[in-house]
TrEMBL record:
Protein name: UPF0102 protein LOKO_00500
Lineage: Bacteria, Pseudomonadati, Pseudomonadota, Gammaproteobacteria, Oceanospirillales
GO molecular function: nucleic acid binding
Pfam family name, one: UPF0102
UniProt record similarity statement: Belongs to the UPF0102 family.
Length: 122
C-alpha cells in the first residue's frame, strides 16, 4: 500500500501533466496546488481575461467510477469558498470559471477530459 507522501507526489505529478496539457490548449498557469483557507485549488489558470479554477481528478481506471463523479456538491462548495478567498486575498475582480479535468490512465498513457464551466458559483 502506498504512503500518503507517495500519493501526494503522484498527485502533484498528475497536476503538472494536467497543467501542461491545458497550457497546450491556450491556458496560462498562474498557480498550482494552492492552499487557501477552506481548501486547496489544484490549478489556477488564465484563459484570456478569465481566471480559471481547475479541479483535477485522476483515476488509473474507471472500474470504480469516472473521476468527474467525485466532484460532489460539497466539494464544489469547498472549491467556491477557496476561490472566493483567493480572489479577496489577491484583490482580484475578474471573470472566473470553474473547470474540471478528468485524467484516467497511468503516465505516460493518460486520457484527459476537460469540462469547461463544470459548475457555477451559487
Amino acid at each position: 500500500m502506498a504512503s500518503g507522501t507517495d500519493a501526494r507526489a503522484r498527485g502533484a505529478h498528475i497536476e503538472r501533466l494536467a497543467a501542461d496539457w491545458l497550457a497546450g490548449r491556450g491556458l496560462a498557469l498562474i498557480a498550482s496546488n494552492h492552499q487557501v483557507k477552506g481548501g486547496e485549488l489544484d490549478l489556477i489558470m488564465r484563459d484570456g481575461e478569465t481566471l480559471v479554477f481547475v479541479e483535477v481528478r485522476h483515476r488509473a481506471d474507471t472500474r470504480h467510477g469516472h473521476p468527474l463523479e467525485t466532484i460532489t456538491v460539497t466539494k464544489q462548495r469547498r472549491l467556491i469558498r477557496a476561490a472566493r478567498f483567493y480572489l479577496a486575498r489577491n484583490r482580484l475582480s475578474c471573470p472566473c470559471r470553474f473547470d474540471a479535468l478528468a485524467v484516467t490512465g497511468t503516465p505516460p498513457a493518460l486520457d484527459f477530459e476537460w469540462v469547461q464551466g463544470a459548475f457555477e458559483a451559487f
